[in-house]
From TrEMBL:
Protein name: Cytochrome P450 43
Functional note: May be involved in the metabolism of insect hormones and in the breakdown of synthetic insecticides.
Cofactor(s), by name: heme
Protein family according to the UniProt entry: Belongs to the cytochrome P450 family.
The entry's keywords: Endoplasmic reticulum, Heme, Iron, Membrane, Metal-binding, Microsome, Monooxygenase, Oxidoreductase, Signal
One GO molecular-function entry: monooxygenase activity
High-level lineage: Eukaryota, Metazoa, Ecdysozoa, Arthropoda, Hexapoda
InterPro entries given in the database record: Cyt_P450, Cyt_P450_E_grp-I, Cyt_P450_sf, Cytochrome_P450_Monoox
One GO cellular component term: endoplasmic reticulum membrane
């Protein structure tokens, strides 16, 4: 009753009995961008809609979002995450409450700014192997390069966060299959999040997506079991007192990566077997896909914008010159234009397009009180393209992130890694991996495309996706 009374006072499309406004989202992922845009334009910065019995309140004001996402009253993921939890378990990515808190605390030491310095060698080696793959491609021909990039990020994650050797990585069961099928799994999850009829289990069970999801989960279980076996074998060789010392580090330090995230889960003895397997896969999937997508969008946009590419190349040449050596943290710090390009990519192609949280206690924002029990929706994709904060919002323009231009904006109109206690754990890892890959590729290749930015067909799912792939030609510079 309380929710109905509050919803009646909030602007938003008129709901139907039972399904609420769920029919609005019965469109394909490409059209969803416009559907949400239209709703926000019509009803404003605080809009309500019903997904069946769940009242969703979309908040697009950057100051309100800061309050909401930073609050302890929103540290429960929204009901739509259930469909992700069906595949990945209710842990670090899709879970909430004590389980999420415990898993996040156990994993955190491996993701710190300093901790990831230890991963630099692997980042560089895998980026070099990527260059070798490009060298084997026919010269002058346009290729869809996403496959090469996602292999690189996947092998990198296995040899860092998961703690495997390259040999162990290459012999993981179903690795390539999992890499290939992951986008389809996330599309199924997002389809269930947005389409009411797929939320009815008996209907979903009749679809081919259900069979695919079931097969994926079976593969994922074998894959995770093997990783856990490898780590258990290795852990037997570490002395008990060393393990305790390594586990109990509080500060962000390079030595934190002497244990992998999986080691920490095993040694904590806090996870049931099933939980451990799901969380092992979650650690893998939360990092390899996001890093691959952002790297690919960066290279693609640079192919579409030759002036930006030349500026970036000049900066890279300036810092690295002719030396054939690994890219270091110091190098990256001396590449401000790379950082601006990277940020512009995260603005245009966010990894979380819509975030949802359950509000656990009433919370006051500028527009009034959001009641406990409703869901907050943070429309990141649309916030990042709101013309009030971004001139020509759909254009690619890294200059938006020059220090002078950044000062002119409200900081929280740009939140690619989300905010607050449930923000992205992998921001330093992802940033460094993406930049290392892109610097290595851009140093060696001029990237061009037969297509233009106008040809890019975007879809909005869990993350922004390119419907026409990532096609470009890689021409050696020297
Ligand atoms: C490089 C670009 C990346 C971007 C833009 C990004 C963005 C995000 C966003 C927006 C969230 C919040 C999701 C939600 O609330 O539903 C998130 C969560 C998360 N990300 Fe990332 N991510 C990136 C890369 C990575 C990488 C490389 C890793 C791992 C190394 C990672 C690990 C995680 C984890 C574990 C969470 C869940 C945090 C929690 O709920 O406590 N991310 N990420």
């Amino acid at each position: 009753k309380k929710l109905l009374a509050i919803a009646a006072k909030l602007p938003g499309p008129k709901p139907l009995p039972l399904v609420g406004n769920a029919l609005l989202f019965m469109c394909n992922f490409e059209d969803l961008i416009k559907v949400i845009d239209d709703i926000l334009n019509e009803y404003g910065d605080v809009t309500s809609f019903w997904l069946g019995p769940d009242l969703n309140i979309v908040v697009k004001d950057p100051n309100d979002l800061k309050v909401l996402l930073s609050s302890q009253k929103t540290t429960v993921k929204g009901p739509q995450y259930k469909y992700m939890a069906d595949c990945l378990g209710g842990g670090i990515l899709s879970g909430s409450g004590p389980c999420w808190r415990k898993h996040r605390k156990i994993a955190t030491p491996n993701y710190g700014k300093r901790a990831i310095e230890n991963y630099s060698d692997v980042f560089n080696k895998e980026a070099d192997l990527l260059l070798e793959k490009f060298r084997m491609k026919p010269n002058g021909r346009q290729i869809d390069f996403y496959q090469c990039i996602v292999q690189t990020t996947s092998y990198t994650v296995c040899q860092t966060l998961m703690g495997l050797s390259k040999e162990q990585t290459m012999s993981l069961p179903y690795l390539q299959h999992i890499i290939d099928e992951t986008p389809r799994l996330y599309d199924t999850v997002f389809a269930r999040m947005t389409k009411w009829y797929l939320q009815l289990d008996p209907v979903f069970w009749l679809t081919s997506s259900y069979q695919q999801q079931k097969n994926f989960i079976a593969m994922m279980t074998h894959f995770s079991k093997k990783i856990v076996e490898h780590r258990m074998e290795t852990l037997k060789t570490i002395k008990q007192y060393n393990k305790t010392d390594l586990l109990n580090t509080e500060e962000d330090s390079v030595s934190n990566t002497q244990l992998s995230v999986i080691d920490r889960f095993i040694l904590s003895e806090e996870l049931e077997r099933e939980e451990l397997l799901k969380e092992t896969f979650t650690i893998f999937t939360s990092s390899q896909e996001a890093s691959a997508k952002i790297s690919s969008f960066l290279l693609l946009m640079i192919a579409y914008h030759p002036e930006a590419q030349e500026k970036l190349y000049a900066e890279i040449e300036d810092v690295i010159g002719d030396q054939d050596r690994p890219i270091t943290e110091e190098d990256l710090k001396r590449m401000p234009y790379l950082d601006m390009v990277f940020k512009e990519i995260l603005r245009l192609f966010p990894i979380g397009t819509l975030l949802q949280r359950t509000i656990t206690e009433d919370i006051v924002i500028s527009a009034g009180t959001l009641p406990a029990g409703c869901s907050l929706v943070a429309p990141i994709y649309h916030l990042h393209r709101d013309p009030r904060y971004w001139t020509r919002p759909n254009d690619f323009d890294p200059e938006r992130f020059s220090p002078e231009n950044v000062k002119q904006r409200i900081p929280t109109c740009y939140i690619p890694f989300s905010l607050g206690p449930m923000d992205c754990l992998g921001r330093y890892f992802g940033t460094k991996l993406v930049k290392t890959i892109c610097v290595k590729v851009l140093r060696e290749y001029k990237i061009t495309s037969l297509n233009t930015y106008n040809d890019l067909r975007l879809a909005m799912a869990i993350s922004a996706s390119s419907l026409n792939g990532f096609h470009a030609t890689f021409t050696p510079r020297k």
